[in-house]
Specification:
Layout: H1 7-18, E1 24-27, E2 37-40, H2 46-60, E3 65-68, H3 83-111, E4 114-119, H4 123-126, H5 132-152, E5 157-164, H6 170-173, H7 177-186, H8 195-206, E6 217-220
Length: about 230
């Protein structure tokens, strides 16, 4: 999985490790949880993605479950959004996920099984002022997953999307108390998710119980995005 050094990604990696799975975690600067293969990879670099998969395959064999979690933001209103603000977010969140899925599929086709899981966001479905780039990248994952589900289903490869809402992580810790209260007021469950609550849905999608689930978008958002 990608981006597993903190927040949601770390919780997902730790959940797989707790299940006894062989886990490889890619990060830009290290810091994978204990028990995981720590792989350095910039997913905006195709050569780095290829090198990372080669390293993982030598250590663990073919990748059976891909969790594409790495993502960045560059929030600003659209009139102030630069070309770089747009392209950096799209290249990391959307194009990076394409690179990972394409490379992982090679091994999955040989195995005739596999699970591809994209971590999107409620913002990709609901929209968010100041996040045109981020929302577009996260919405794009839905179309990608559903196309992969149709393309790869005959080989027992599933492709699904998990769409978290607001989660207690370093990214949300910087919000003011007033901002947090305003967000909670929009959420029917009146609280943020924990990273573990996202991780439990991801591990379910990777397990035997979700073998017939593909092309799905599963919200874990406390009801924030209902109907979207």
């Amino acid at each position: 999985m990608t981006g597993g050094n903190r927040g949601i990604g770390r919780a997902i990696a730790e959940a797989f490790i707790a299940n006894g799975d062989q886990v490889a975690v890619t990060t830009r600067n290290g810091g994978a949880p204990e028990g995981a293969l720590d792989v350095r990879c910039d997913i905006t670099d195709p050569a780095a993605v290829e090198a990372a998969f080669t390293q993982i395959e030598v250590a663990h064999g073919p990748v059976e479950v891909l969790v594409a979690n790495a993502g960045i933001t560059a929030d600003t209103l659209v009139l102030r959004m630069s070309e770089e603000d747009w392209s950096s977010v799209i290249d990391t969140n959307l194009t990076g996920s394409f690179r990972l899925a394409k490379r992982a599929t090679k091994g999955m086709l040989r195995l005739r099984r596999g699970r591809i899981i994209f971590i999107s966001s409620v913002v990709g479905l609901l929209g968010s002022a100041g996040q045109v780039n981020y929302a577009a990248s996260k919405a794009g994952l839905v179309g990608m997953a559903r196309s992969l589900a149709r393309e790869l289903g005959s080989r027992s490869i599933t492709a699904n999307v998990v769409a978290p809402g607001f989660v207690e992580t370093d990214m949300t810790a910087v919000l003011t108390g007033e901002q947090k209260a305003a967000i909670k007021a929009q959420v029917p469950l009146q609280r943020y998710a924990t990273p573990d609550e996202i991780a439990s849905v991801v591990t379910w999608l990777a397990g035997d119980g979700a073998a017939y689930v593909t092309g799905a978008v599963i919200p874990v958002d406390g009801g924030l995005g209902m109907g979207h």
